[in-house]
Amino acid sequence: MSGRLFLLPAPLAAYSPEAWSPETLALHLPAKAIGLYASLDSFIVESERSALRLLSRFKDAQSLRSLKLRVLNEHSGESELPSLLEDLEQGMDCGFLSEAGMPCIADPGAALVAYAREKGVKIIPISGPSSILLGLVASGLDAQRFAFLGYLPQNGEERRAYIARMATAVLKDGMTRVCIETPYRNKALLKDLIALLPDSLWLCVASDLCGAEERVLSAPAAQWRRSGLPAIGKVPAIFLFGKRAGMRPPDSR
Amino acid sequence: MSGRLFLLPAPLAAYSPEAWSPETLALHLPAKAIGLYASLDSFIVESERSALRLLSRFKDAQSLRSLKLRVLNEHSGESELPSLLEDLEQGMDCGFLSEAGMPCIADPGAALVAYAREKGVKIIPISGPSSILLGLVASGLDAQRFAFLGYLPQNGEERRAYIARMATAVLKDGMTRVCIETPYRNKALLKDLIALLPDSLWLCVASDLCGAEERVLSAPAAQWRRSGLPAIGKVPAIFLFGKRAGMRPPDSR
């Protein structure tokens, strides 16, 4: 198996002709990623539509027509993994692209990487934007240690019980918690967080990161309760809660 | 307070004239970060030496001479924060740069951001390489949820007890654990991890990420025990352990 599997970042900002102009994309993506978009001929992608939109910014019509795209998404099964590696087996380099941000995190790419590792494929991760880290550094929350929780439970009651449990855990262990939500549930999640977090914790909501409407709101829970629910809309967002960062981080392992 | 505080990424690869040539740096850093290195005149930095080395790649001698640098590191106290914001108060934009990777994570930058937020400073996070995420995506470990633990306890006995506790926790909650170590303790940490992790968990060590000697080793703990300790050296590295990623992630909140 001599092809290499490149784990490529995708833009965070949602598609628009301006947000996805080659110049704007290059502002947020390193040259290595852009060079690989342009040069690779084989890709495993989470969304064919997003991948083609992105690659069309950097490839001519001829290369786009001869492109090999294979799909790996939440509907894929374990049994499909071997066929995804066919081009790699032929010695071709291959890129993996998720819908947004760094691949493999909270998507099925990690299973592909595990399988590819067992088959001896060389894996090369390429740096790029991550809403988890951009939200974290801009939040003012403690970032000595943090936990990414992925998607929270969809059921309202379960979600609220989970948030309450996590809030208690933060008070004890000091680890900032980071979670995501599908955009149409942003409002429900934010409402629950504002209602449930204890006064002493901070809540941060970062939306449209790297986009024209980028907004990072971060304040103590008590202040959120006073100012009420902001207009958040159905945009990609990330939610964080934890202790305000200090010069001497709390240690309670 | 009208200046903006830009949270800038720094290269991950350790300094060498080749690794830090402007062309190599641009491979791993987005154009936005490089544009800000070149255009900002005021910086808060974790290490004056690293910051000057980096900025000298993108600034002429004249701009370097008139540069305003203020230091924030692990020896800084809470009382120094107000003076760090002086240029921002004068309406100047300011960049924050840590020694490597994204700022604020496991460094005192987060306290600066918290303080700046309370003073109404506009905070703008700029994307860049992160060893946490590059290691995670390349590992093949479950990445639906993960926890960054920062530096582990320095004392050998405490460290081993902590690793054992974390290994038990991973088996239960399925969250991949990520930790760092100062390079001269890499070998001791790796030895402990290889000795202590249960057979079913995977261990991943990623070193010199984005550098010429980039290496990501990831395999079941049992396999590490059979193959023995690899030559790791005193290079920047990140360590991860957790369950092998599958298409259907384990859920045990």
From TrEMBL, chains A, B:
GO molecular function terms listed in the Swiss-Prot or TrEMBL record: methyltransferase activity
Pfam families recorded: TP_methylase
Domain Tetrapyrrole methylase: 76-222
Keyword presence, S-adenosyl-L-methionine: yes
Keywords, in A-Z order: Cytoplasm, Methyltransferase, rRNA processing, S-adenosyl-L-methionine, Transferase
Keyword field contains rRNA processing: yes
E.C. code: 2.1.1.198
GO biological process: methylation; rRNA processing
InterPro entries found in the cross-reference section: 4pyrrol_Mease, 4pyrrol_Methylase_sf, 4pyrrole_Mease_sub1, 4pyrrole_Mease_sub2, rRNA_ssu_MeTfrase_I
Protein name: Ribosomal RNA small subunit methyltransferase I
Organism, scientific name: bioreactor metagenome
